[in-house]
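Feature request, filed as a ticket because there's no other form

It would be nice if the structure record came with a short human-readable summary line next to the tokens. Right now we just get the raw output. Example of a typical job, pasted below so the devs can see what we mean:
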Amino acid sequence: MIGGGDIVLDRSAFPLVHCWFPPVVHDEQIGRFLDAFRAFLDEGHRYVPVIDFSETQVRPNPALRRLAGQFIAELNQRSTVLALAVVFVVPNQLWRGALTAVFWAARPVVPTHVVAHIDEGRAVARGILIGAGLVPA
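Raw output as currently delivered:
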């Protein structure tokens, strides 16, 4: 498990990678998380990230939206052959709107799924990994 401040990059179910965001997210936490995620990408493994905002409670501010856009743009450039898909867990309707705005600014190049609950997110990711032959059925 790699932590970026209070943001966690959990590889314990690899190739499913669970990225958990805490209730309150600050700019510096995002920066540390992005550094940890870049190091993970440098390893060159195929994977499906589950980006979990299920406990995040605050409205995303413009700086966080900008950083999320940068993350998606970098993911698009560096990970198109590594990420089989991206699954976002976003139970809050406001966050779904913010995520839509980010996708307008930085279109994802891998299949992207937005779900309301972590169990659903894990199930979607597992189905993708089974379909790719990376985990047993």
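Something like this underneath would help us a lot:
The longest strand covers residues 16-20.
Residues 11 and 70 are 22 Å apart (CA to CA).
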